[in-house]
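Try this one yourself first.
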């Protein structure tokens, strides 16, 4: 084990349980292209066109969508946070983008309380703005006294978790936990030395089996926070040259292609999923079977050009962006651009495809024919096998 890795693990003992040899160790240098089809992991597919009454333009796919109870929350860069019903109807808008009282300049970093559907937005300068279920502004509180730049927030058991960008030298903490009024409950001081970089690469969170999991580009270990707020290691990224450097790089656009930038991590009962960009000049999506640790790697070109071959109905390739459990069944979620869907359905590839469910292919063709290229995205829900 490298000395710097050993030092890192020792530091962890002060605030989190140390990793052990039984943990899953992830090393993308061992991954080889090994595609998997949708029919191998799923048994149904559902498309829900979103209401066009409010035109949706730019969407940050790393934050969308979020499912809370029977609603879907979506952040649109120019409009703000929108709430849709499960059948795709627009229900309401949460607050407004702007610089006035009760408005937010940046709303992509938001979270929702599952019990009350209260929405928390981390605006610029680490100001948390709170909105009611109906979208009315309630209050705000500042996290400025803790320094740093907040990267991600998440509501977990009605407590607010905030993690930090570690590449700025004013970041004193990896994360803090507060109550919903902004009172500090717990904090975790950073475990890696101060450094600065000239590119923005944050981390993320996901909730699975009553645990809040968090990761950061510059920390090798992914951790879980349990309901009692204790912390333990979940899995480890093996140290190596593929990890983002803790330093400036001369030309980020060219040089970052040799490193793996993690875009998203989440879990299902069977798989650990990782979506990344740039590594070896490719964007990848990997499914890792948690039982036998076999990996399935495929590549994607853009947010609208997926990676998993869709042999259920012959539709566009699938690039999961979200995870949902409903009525004891698991779903993977993506938002599909109508233009991409219509283009694909009119292609020779689709017309010659022989999917597992031919009737679904007919339904998809009918749906595509009913869409306009300028319509709002289509919610694609893939039901995983039990």
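Now uncover the answer:
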């Amino acid at each position: 084990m490298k000395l710097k890795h050993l030092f890192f693990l020792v530091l962890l003992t002060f605030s989190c349980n140390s990793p052990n040899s039984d943990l899953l160790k992830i090393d993308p240098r061992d991954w080889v292209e090994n595609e998997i089809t949708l029919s191998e992991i799923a048994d149904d597919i559902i498309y829900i066109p979103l209401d066009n009454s409010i035109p949706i333009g730019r969407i940050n796919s790393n934050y969308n969508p979020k499912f809370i109870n029977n609603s879907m929350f979506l952040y649109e860069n120019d409009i703000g946070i929108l709430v849709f019903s499960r059948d795709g109807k627009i229900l309401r808008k949460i607050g407004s983008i702007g610089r006035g009282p009760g408005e937010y300049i940046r709303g992509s970093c938001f979270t929702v309380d599952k019990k009350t559907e209260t929405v928390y937005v981390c605006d610029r300068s680490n100001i948390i703005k709170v909105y009611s279920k109906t979208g009315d502004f309630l209050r705000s509180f500042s996290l400025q006294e803790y320094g740093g730049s907040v990267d991600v927030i998440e509501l977990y058991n009605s407590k607010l978790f905030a993690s930090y960008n570690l590449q700025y030298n004013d970041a004193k903490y990896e994360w803090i936990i507060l109550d919903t009024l902004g009172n500090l409950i717990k904090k975790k001081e950073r475990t890696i030395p101060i450094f600065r970089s000239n590119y923005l690469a944050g981390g993320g969170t996901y909730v699975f089996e009553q645990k809040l999991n968090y990761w950061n580009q510059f920390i090798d270990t992914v951790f879980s926070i349990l309901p009692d707020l204790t912390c333990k290691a979940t899995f480890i990224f093996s140290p190596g040259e593929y990890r983002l450097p803790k330093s400036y790089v001369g030309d980020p656009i060219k040089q970052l292609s040799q490193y793996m930038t993690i875009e998203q991590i989440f879990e299902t009962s069977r798989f650990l999923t990782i979506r990344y960009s740039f590594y070896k000049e490719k964007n990848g999506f990997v499914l890792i079977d948690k039982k036998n640790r076999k990996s399935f790697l495929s590549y994607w070109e853009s947010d609208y050009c997926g990676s998993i071959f869709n042999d259920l109905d012959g539709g566009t390739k699938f690039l999961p962006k979200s995870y949902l459990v409903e009525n004891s069944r698991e779903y993977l979620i993506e938002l599909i651009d109508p233009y991409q869907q219509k283009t694909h359905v009119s292609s020779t590839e689709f017309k010659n495809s022989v999917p597992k469910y031919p009737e679904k292919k007919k339904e998809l063709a009918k749906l595509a024919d009913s869409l306009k290229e300028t319509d709002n995205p289509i919610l694609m829900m893939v039901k995983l096998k039990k």
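Discussion: DSSP finds six helices and 25 strands in the chain. The longest helix spans residues 358-370.
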